């Protein structure tokens, strides 16, 4: 955590690998199946995300000790504070495990899923989580981690079930609602952060803007994806 250099280096390497190296290597190869690997990976992510969500809740957010309106950063080293710092670090670590998902897309030649939204989202999140872990590992700024881990439990559960193949996929009608859930998540995070612009709270203003604008950028990208992926297709069917 002493420097963002290693995290930034990993993120830049990730972008170069999945946008240039990976597709080039797989260009003349047959796609890998990876069915069992995908099932194991997504099951791990469900359990990991569920544990992170539980820890965010138990460390303050659902114990009554954290205020959703204003929760200053606590620089003390009491056990409750350090528990939140600990789960924030593991949340930061989880953003690296999520990069593997894109590698699987490349190996399966699902290049359409390695779009700008996917690469930007995965490529920026480790850096964003580093900033949180470094400068506000507890308090108001941990709320996005609480929501994000909850969403990821649902999202990776969908991916886990989808990995079983067509016999299960035909029952997974709720895929588009995952994108809606992501969008709702970002709206809540944005308003939760920006409320501190009018609420008197001892929380650095620069990080209020950072969290709010990052959530807004993610919402915009996911909204554009949703309109293109679902609304446009639905309109074409109606013609």
UniProtKB/TrEMBL annotation:
It catalyses: a very-long-chain acyl-CoA + malonyl-CoA + H(+) = a very-long-chain 3-oxoacyl-CoA + CO2 + CoA. GO terms for molecular function: fatty acid elongase activity. The gene is AUGUSTUS-3.0.2_34276. Belongs to the ELO family. The chain crosses the membrane at residues 6-25, 37-54, 89-107, 114-133, 145-165, 177-194, 206-226. It comes from Tribolium castaneum. This is Elongation of very long chain fatty acids protein. Its EC number is 2.3.1.199. It holds the Pfam family ELO. GO terms for cellular component: endoplasmic reticulum membrane.
